[in-house]
Design brief:
Blueprint lengths: L2 E7 L9 H13 L11 E7 L13 E10 L4 H18 L1 H6 L2 E10 L10 H7 L1
Parallel strand pairs: 1-2, 3-4
Antiparallel strand pairs: 1-3
Helix pairs in contact: 1-2
Length: 131
């Protein structure tokens, strides 16, 4: 962990929105948190929304991006606040031009869960521990 998911309306699926860049930059923010998150556990993904409605639906160009950061328990409130502040600042900067062009809602939430009830297996941690 952490896992970062973006729900993004399909009208933002354009090259100039550089979603692959957003994912790489988001992972870098998580990596740069001073060891708070193990690099081998970081995942980011996009869920493209084909159907959506913003407000009353009258503006077909309206769009939104909602980010959800899921982390296992054990980080301090200050660590989570710093991480989320930096991720949200990145999200806002990444879509700044789009924000000027159209109706756009940006939002983010963080959820922390107990390790009980989760199952994980990966061989990535060992690779990053060697580096």
């Amino acid at each position: 962990m952490p896992h970062l998911s973006f729900e993004i309306t399909a009208n933002l699926d354009r090259a100039d929105c550089d979603i692959p860049g957003l994912l790489r930059q988001s992972n870098q923010v998580l990596i740069e948190q001073g060891g708070v998150f193990p690099t081998g556990g970081i995942r980011s993904r996009v869920h493209w929304l084909r159907d959506w409605c913003v407000a009353d639906g009258s503006q077909a160009t309206d769009a939104f991006v909602h980010a959800t950061l899921k982390v296992g328990a054990g980080r301090s409130a200050a660590q989570l606040q710093k991480t989320c502040d930096e991720l949200f600042a990145l999200l806002c900067a990444h879509f700044a031009a789009e924000f000027e062009r159209r109706g756009l809602a940006l939002s983010m939430e963080c959820s922390e869960f107990s390790e009980a009830g989760t199952w994980k297996k990966n061989n990535l941690h060992a690779r990053y521990k060697k580096a």
